[in-house]
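Q&A log
Question type: sequence-to-structure
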Amino acid sequence: MEDTSWLEWLICLLLLIGASFALIGSLGLVRLPDFFMRLHGPTKATTLGVGSIIVGSMLFFSTRGEGLSLHELLIALFLFITAPVSAHIVGKAALHVGLPYRKDTQHWEQDS
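Response status: OK
Response body:
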């Protein structure tokens, strides 16, 4: 039983880190002032939070089941590929339709 206690602590730490990142990302989504600033909450912090929770889940089920649990690895791969791409597409669409932004929001202007 003592051999797995360090692994249980590691899994608990990963879950707490993931929950903290997810909470911070959610608060950023609610509290930041404009759309472009709010876009960073779910794409950065929440992606790291869910990634940490998935790694903790992968460790847990790999030690409890029969061999390495690859389902969670596929979920993490899908998440880390699609979240930045979708955020980029949504940001470009918001620029295209001319959503208002604050003066202190940094943005890229295309040379016309």
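Response note: The radius of gyration is 18 Å.
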